[in-house]
Amino acid sequence: MIKDKTSIRPVIRKIGTIENKSPAERFQNLTLRPIIKLQHELLVAFFENYLKKRKIDFSGLSELEKHEVISKAFKKDNLFKTEIRALVLGHFTLEEYSVYQTIATDANKRIITMIEERLQSVTL
Length: 124
Hints:
Layout: H1 23-38, H2 40-53, H3 63-76, H4 78-89, H5 94-102, H6 104-121
Organism: Lutimonas vermicola
Protein name: Glyoxalase
C-alpha cells in the first residue's frame, strides 16, 4: 500500500490558468477585456454616433438587420475600425503598449471581435 500518493501523481497544470495561455490570450484577458469593459458606454455612444452620421435608423430595424448593420460596419468600414481600436489603445500603459507592439495583428483582431460581439449583445 502506498502511503504518499503525491509522489506518484504527475504535475498537471490547471487549464484555466494564465500560464497556459498564449501571449495574445493573456494580453486579451489582462488588458483588453478590462479596457473594453471600462469604455463600454463610450463604445456604444461612438457606434450610435456612427449610425447618426450615416443616417441609419437603427430603431426601425429588426434584430437580424441590426446584427447585419453592426457586422457590415466592422467588416467594411476601415476608418470605423481604426477609430474603435484607437479608443482602446489610448488607454494602454507604456508596458501594455510594448506588449501590444509584439502581437499587434492578433491584438487588433481581438479588439475588433470583442467590441463587435459587445455591440451585438447590446440593445441600442
